[in-house]
Amino acid sequence: MLRVSEGDEPVELAFQPRYGQVAAYEWFGDGYILLGFTAGFLVAVSTHPKEIGHELFQLQPHPSGLKHMAIAADADLAATAGADGQIKLHSLTAGETKRVLNAPGATNLTWSSDGQLISASCTAGIAVFLACLPTVAAADSSRAAILTSLSEVSVTEPNFQEPLSSVRLVVEPSWVAVGPAHVAAGMNNRAWFHRLSLSAEEVATKEYLSRVSCLKLNSRVAAALCAGRVHVHTIEDVAAEAVVPEDESDGRVTAHEITNEALVYGTDVGVLAIFHLQQWRLVQRYRHSCALKIVSTEASGSRVAFLDDHHQVFIFCPLTESVIAVDASPSTEGILWDSWPGEAAFLVTFDSQQASGHVFLRDSVRGSYAEAVASPTKLPNGQRPLWLAGGEMGLHGPDGRLNRIMLEGHAAVLRLPDSLDALLSLRRYKEAWSAAVERPQLKKLAEAALYDMEFEVALRAFRRLKDAGMVRAVEAAAEAEDRFESAGMAALCLGQYDIAEHAFLQSDRPSAALEMRSSLLEWPRALELAASLAPDQVPLLAKQFAQQLEFTGEHAQALAQYERASGQVDCRAGLARCALRCGDVRRGLSLLDETASVDLLRECATILESGRHLPEAASLAERAGLYERAAELHVRLKNWPKVAQLLPRVTAPRVHAQFAKAKEAEGRYAEAVAAYVTAGDPEAAVRLLLEKLRRPEEAVKIVKETRNPEAAKQVARFLRSAGDATSALQLLVWCGCASEAFEFARQAGEMALLGRLLAAEAASDGAAPIAQLLEVARHFEAEQDAFLAGKFLHLAGESQRAVQLLLKAAAVGHKEALEVAVEAAAAAQHEPHLADQVIQFICGDLDGVPKDFSLVLRLYLTRGQLEEAAQVAVLMAEEEQKAGNYRAAHDTLLTAHQQLRARGGSPPEALRSRLALLHSYILARLHVRRGQHLMAARLLSRVAANISKFPAHAVPILTSAVIECGRAGLASTSFRLASMLMRPMHRPHLDPKYKRKIESVVRKGLRDPEAPEPTSPCPHCLQPLPEYELACSRCKNNLPFCIATGKHVVRDDFTLCPHCEFPAIASGFSELLETENVCPMCGAEVETAALSTLEDLSEYLKV
Questions:
Q1: pLDDT tens, 345-364?
Q2: Positive or negative torsion for Cα 47, 52, 58, 60
Q3: What positions does the domain IF140/IFT172/WDR19 TPR occupy (predicted)?
Q4: Are strands 369-378 and 354-361 parallel, antiparallel or unpaired?
Q5: Is 200 left (phi over 0), alpha (psi -120 to 50) or beta?
């Protein structure tokens, strides 16, 4: 094999020895060779450089040997003649045997030019065989007619399972046609019409004036294309006939199509015409730019697709007379509309190799358009599309059989029914709604539906997305009566503003385009639209545009727009600002002469300052009330008289500082000092007072007011030089100059003074320099002053060493040292052993001398050891009680009780019960004084029941109890208590003046029964119990007592002391406050108006 164009060396193709010798070979296709071998093999090989010698297929059709072969490339067939007396036909693409013909002795095979006939030299002579039928077929939207033999036409539906009808013909037809009710066939200028029925009878014969090149049928009319004219006539009805076009200027008809309502045809001069079959006249005519080659109508006739001479496909809409381009292949040979399109119109354009699907949308935000769907579908070799239904295309091939193939876009939906992209590409929105589950899918569906103005689907999707804004916008678009306005609103929702503008301008309300551009702040385009749509809005838009330009710093353009918008509100202000920014100061200031806007004056002052027009800027700042800014500008201009004039209105320190420096340079020190003070520069003020004016008192005053360390150092040096070391050291400590103060004290021998000053400073603000405190502590430790050393160590946080030194000082009688030791031990939370040391010292474990136990209580409370604090408080109170110091014991327990509650603890029962007993005694004395004998008797009876806890005054208390019970009429209680007094342990201690009376009570004995004690409900369980009972026998709760009456509290008459927050019976407390103005528990003054009845007692029932 030799490539002639390249001049390469010949290439030898070698084959398997079993094939035998090459008997014949022939080229076919694009660089392929078919070879026949003597052993009966048929082999196809490629000669392409990358696959040279590669076998496409190999057959052995004639095992007895192969004599000859021939190829019909157009028919995709190869014929071989074998020694077995047979001719076999093979498919070149499929590589398989299709048909076997008996021809004894056949050789020298020859094909006809169309590949339908093959001749061979046989033993009996020349034999001619029909290899395949002529490719004669036609279809409409619902059925197809094909030539199944030389004289028979079969009609079938798209599923082509069984033929609907078979028609026998008298001649071999060159063309056929099929309609809803008829099938026609013919040759040359004759046509035979048969009704579609089982009998398929012939109903009409028509002879035309010239040869028929194409015939189209509907249910009652036939249209034949003859010599560039279309002959239209009825098939069976009353004869009606017409020839179109009538005007020769319309050219020759090149293609036509017929529907139930109209005939559509195209001509070689670009005329697309519609002939109405009901009115029997031409009703519409459109002229294209070039000749039309193919015309295809949708079943309804509402859309016409055509292919022009430039190989471009368009869709013509008769209703709107609009033409929409279709992005079809330049090699397009045919167009088919889908007869079952679904929700959107669908068509395919095809050539001999592939078919491309296109969906057509009449209404969308950009109007009507056609869009390609999926990738092209490859067609089988030699197969030609006849019809399209639901994405399935019917094909007719050289073998005379009908095949079908699914387009790629529809096949994708069949493969993946839930593929949202595939469904949207076909505009199947109802199915897409079911497939959209996730939010991104719903959003995609909503936007696609909105783009195609499928408002119902878009609304459903946006509602599911809960996008209220889009729902309202889509509803407004759907409700718009004008189609173009509706499209514009939909495009606006999608953010496609140019498309929206185009649609609005075509609508009945073109001003919507202006409104949109204004809302988008696209002022240049808005001004262009306003010039033609609403000239009266130009000034307002120009002002808004100017404001935007001014904001972005394009001041020259903004000035031009402000001038264009003259007359609008705020334009004068904009003109002034832009004039100043553009350097036209005179014009800008003239525009500001009559303004009263403070904000505008401030803006313009800033503009002038940035442009270095300082005098003008200062003037405007002063007019605007910006006195500080004006003063700063005058300072920069060194206009000191004007600065002095403005200073009373200026608070900015930097202005006063600059003015002070100027006055200092002029030697006017007093004015400079005042300015320095106002400016917050006390160092400079003190420097002038000490060095220039010699006024140390004023310098000290400034230091005390400002506590400036540097100023303090200056004054301290001055005072030290003047011999006032105490004042100098005090000033240094007070201003926080600790290191300087320590060094000064060390040099001056005033360490004790420094210690006192540091201690006072630490006590006043709670902080002091640790390093200096430690130095002072070491100094005093070296001086054998254990108290001061320990005290300063405590202030410095050295608790362990501090406690040791403080206990050492306390051991020699220093009272304050023990208190400071308690504070140090309490502060050392993480060192509990220090607290133990202090407690042992207080208890006398170290030296055998007990100290003040209140310090132990304070220590426990400070450290948060509440339980231990309560125990100590009870022990202290017990000791005081034994000694007869009942008020001191009461106050100790009250303080402990309040401290425990303040720290979130609950006072133990021992503390509460002892406090109640002591308070009952104190309260009884109060009521005796007030003459409330019954109340005093009840309280003294409670105390007498625990008389062992009052050993120091047992006999006086019992005596008072007997007397008060007698006064209150509690005879049995008085007798019982008098009997106790007559016992040997108490009788010798009776007061003589009460002895006879007591004996009389005992001698009289019990005569009248005592009235029972009144009851009141328990505040916990509401069980009635005696008023003075403090424990409920039913719920077993200890009850809080009233601080005014000693009774247990009740729910419906409950109050609190506003100071100690102890409970009380509101009525009893109020009655007590009528004669006493203090709380009987804490001693604080209480006004009756300060009491309030509480309803929620849960927090106080444990008090």
A1: 999 999 989 999 999 998 89
A2: positive
A3: 445-812
A4: antiparallel
A5: left
Rg of the chain, C-alpha, whole Å = 60
d(CA 236, CA 220): 7
Tell me the pLDDT tens digit for each residue of 868-878. Answer: 777 877 888 78
Q: Which residues contact 702 (CB under 8 A, 6 or more apart)?
A: 677, 682, 685, 686, 689, 708, 711
The answer to whether 276 and 283 are in contact (CB under 8 A) is yes
Residues 291, 296, 297, 298, CA torsion sign: negative
Strand order from edge to edge, sheet including 125-130: 107-111, 117-122, 125-130
List b or e across 801-814, with b for residues whose CB sees 16 or more CB atoms inside 10 angstroms. Answer: bbbbbbbbbbeeeb
Q: How far apart are CA 1070 and CA 1063, in angstroms?
A: 13
256, β-bridge pairs: 265
The CB density around residue 97, as the number of other CB atoms within 10 Å, is: 15
CA distance 701 to 678: 14
Is the pTM above the cut of 0.70?
A: no
Tell me the β-bridge partners of 1017. 1024
pLDDT-derived band at 766 (thresholds 50, 70, 90) equals: low
| Angle in degrees, CA 34, 37, 41, rounded to 5 | 80
| Cβ–Cβ < 8 Å for 824, 794 | yes
- The 8-class DSSP code of residue 845 comes to T
> Which among 401, 334, 326, 309 is positioned nearest to 370, based on CA atoms?
326
For residue 123, which phi and psi values (nearest 5 degrees)?
A: -65, -35
Nearest to 835 by CA among 863, 813, 809: 863
Beta bridge partners of 1016: 1025
Q: Within a 10 A sphere around the Cβ of 202, how many other Cβ atoms?
A: 14
Residue type, 671: E
* Cα–Cα distance for residue pair 377/754, rounded to 1 Å: 103
SS3 236: coil
DSSP 328-391: --TT--EEEE-SS-TTSEEEEEE-SSEEEEEEEESSSTT-SEEEEEEEEEEPPTT-EEEEEETT
CA 117 to CA 134: how far, in whole Å?
10
CA distance 1071 to 538: 85
- What is the per-residue pLDDT across 991-1010, written as a single tens digit (0 to 9) for each? 888 888 888 888 777 667 78
CA-wise closest residue to 145 among 186, 100, 107, 104: 186
Q: What is the crossing angle of helices 815-827 and 799-811, to 10°?
A: 160
User: Cα separation of 872 and 424, whole Å?
Assistant: 87
Tell whether the model's pLDDT for residue 582 goes beyond 80.
yes
The alpha-helical segments, DSSP class H, found in 766-865 are 770-782, 786-795, 799-811, 815-827, 832-843, 854-863
Q: Which residues of 864-900 are buried (b: 16+ CB within 10 A; e: fewer)?
A: ebbebbbbbbbebbbebbeeeebebbbbbbbbbbbbb
Q: Are 103 and 121 in contact (CB under 8 A)?
A: no
**Statement: residue 220 has pLDDT above 50:** yes
Angle at 131 between CA 126 and CA 134, to 5 degrees: 120
Contact predicate 608/617, CB 8 Å: yes
Rounded-to-integer distance, Cα 938 and Cα 997, Å: 20
Cα gap 390→392, rounded to integer Å: 5
Preceding omega of 245 cis (within 30 degrees of 0): yes
Three-state SS letters, 136-162: CEEECCCCEEEEEECCEEEEECCCCCC
Beta-strand pair 322-326/137-139: unpaired
Q: Distances from the Cα of 69 to the Cαs of 88, 111, 308, 631, 775, in angstroms?
A: 9, 10, 42, 113, 124
* Residues 178 and 164 sit within 8 Å (Cβ to Cβ): no
